[in-house]
Structures
1.
Amino acid sequence: MKQGEDRRVTRTRRLLRQALVKRMREKSVSSITVKELCDECDINRGTSYSHYSDVAALLESIENDLFAQLQQMLAQLSTEEMLSRNNPSRTMVALFEFLRENADICAALLCDNGDPAFIERVRVFVRREVLGEWRHMFSDGDGERQEYTFAFLVSGSMGMLQHWLESGLTLTPEQMAAMLTEFITQGVAVMR
């Protein structure tokens, strides 16, 4: 492809993604049509179909891109960094900066009209990648208690994130990272 064509493809995909995110803030993704998105972007339906087969494929593409980036961020977090009583780690702050930079997409995916499957996908990843590292902290507890503790920590963290996004990002990434670190640390200490 020529460079001009690459820019047109990138621009069209960006416009379609922005239109979907905007519509998801207004109504259920299952009720959003390709025609609505095309009208919003001022492109024809044929152009849209050359990029995505339907709205579900567009949503899946957005989720896959965001999830891949989230995986990279979470993979950099060590348990020791997350649970440090010192200042929040640079990685934790970077994660919240990433979320702030992608606030429109994250808010759309996590809002009432968002995709519950995406939230569950994030939870499964965190469970798989992080729970193994956390298990050593509960040597005096049984497996069932560990499972409840993990469910509490993940759900609380997700709730904080949703509230932050819904409230307009009133706190800085540094403040959010510090607060989350404090809550996780205190929660783990209480639940031991």
2.
Amino acid sequence: MRIFNTSGPCNPEQHYTVMREALMAQGQALVDHGRFFTIFAPRQSGKTTYFQLLFRQLPYLPVRVSFEGMRTLGRAKFYETFARRLQRGLSEQGIGVEFTFADQVDLQNSLEVAKWPNQRLVLVIDEFEEVAPDVLGELLHVFRDIYQYKQHYALQSLLLVGVSTLAELVVSSASPFNVVDQLQIPYFTEAEVADLI
């Protein structure tokens, strides 16, 4: 039998963090070690809540971008939209910058250390499965190159968030994205649901 403290208001975010403490610690360790990884789970299972809470525990600059609705965009429009959404994500963190991406090279150049003195960025791309098929391969090659030459880039960590694993998105025999760390957000257990209620 559990006894709940009802003397004060319940803080759902704090409760979630405590309830999934091991999962939060695992994500923080991956970021601290500079890993590029995927977070995947079915819809409405807590992915967004998870990375928003993770952001609050990190000593880095978190930036969120969503690819929602971008699957059908042509290559030029995809990069234009990516730049605009990245600007918006940085603006939400109080940083005003302007980007113009004509292609994947412009994206890669925008993340160079020289452009981010004394900053380490954690880039979260939500709804990654909505990436335009025309750019998936070249985008993954850029992330791989950044990962392999991290000393030249301000990107501490990259989180690709969605309902699919990267392996399910890349339909080739060899993925150019050679970083295979995955963090699966499981459905709440029966005990966790009882705690939430």
3.
Amino acid sequence: LIIVDFDDLVEHPYSIGMLRGILSDSDVPFVSSEEFLAEPDSWLMEARRLGGEATDLPTKRTVAFVSYSGGVGKTVLAMDTASHFARRSKLPVALLEFTYGESAVSALVGQTVPALFELATQPDVEPYVWNDVTLVPMDYDNSRDLSIQLLGKYLKDVMREHVLTVIDAHWPHALIGAVRDEIDRWYVVATPRPDAVENAEKLAAELGPQAACP
């Protein structure tokens, strides 16, 4: 049994809507303190009837697949990782893209979907969901006109709605500063050539101890 007063919660690391969704999808009953105090015996009886054990909320994570150049497979890895986690865990997953030029995510999905500029500036536009993954592809020519503060606010709001956020990023990227401090782990992707691996090792060193390379 979980006793929770949603109005008193601080939205960190998850939004209240996200928390409600996780609890609603679980087998654990939840109730407000006012409801519990009105009928404590009945709620305790319901908890005993259901039995089982409550588990902790999942830890929020953000991982980034990154490389100096395109064509190394990081978009495919990012999309596969996101869809695999969503399928296995049944928890909310988002995929954010930081690229220049055309969106590789939209190309792989096979259709035009709402991109970052539209999503960040038009609250009534919803992200496209692919294989249970919320997609935020980038349209750099438009998005670069937005402030880092506005982008950061929108993207962090998206991240609070998801247990896992996967980032597909070209490095360096002018806009990734909007969420860089949120990234828990960097995965540097390279092709199996000595020069590419050497470049990947240099990038991992640049990103610091939270980076892993081939």
